[in-house]
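look at this record:
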Amino acid sequence: MTIRVVLADDQELVRSAFALLIGVAPDLEVVGAAATGREAVDLAREHAADVVVMDLRMPVMDGIAATAEIAAAKDLSHIKVLVLTTFETDDNVFAALRAGASGFLAKDTRPTELLSAIRTVAAGESLLSPVATRVLISQYLQGAEVATTPERIVLLTEREREVLVLIATGLTNQEIADVLFVSPLTAKTHVSRILTKLGARDRAQLVMIAYESGLVRPGTRAPLTDQR
């Protein structure tokens, strides 16, 4: 099945370069290229995109507003947004994740990593496992006052809370299964139930909920997954 991609960046050279790169992948297809956030939303709707590769700083409508509109629209809610930025300097990354982005990637990433990232978010996963990403999230949440038992967290069973913590520390379903000594299918089932109970769009939103609720604190490390 071909993954339909819309590119959104205000620099034509960047759009052209990414289009050429993505175009050579047999399972990916660029169906639109936008210079503004407004165009990104419109093209995503017009071409029934699966993934929008989104720059944050664009005219007319920036990437955060465009991401929020895509996440909020019922006819676009299946679309995943992959934000391209720089980890250390972009103050809007956390806001983009709050708006509904499924993850983010550095603009200077290797070509193979970009293609892999598109496939990852299209499959419903999130790009929140790299160390640089966790550090950035921690940076924004340091010192934040958060509730320890918000209503939506109370909906979870003890096991589901445990799984949510593992998700927030960047573990995949396979790694969660390894830590909990369960099958990957069981881990996936737990994740699906957590998404439903918390009304979360994807794993990226689960990470935000885990931090904002106080269930996970900045600096929490993922457990080792090679203990079996």
Summary: The mean pLDDT is 83. The two ends are 35 Å apart (CA to CA). Strands lie at 3-8, 28-34, 51-55, 80-85, 103-106. The chain has two domains: 3-127, 145-212.
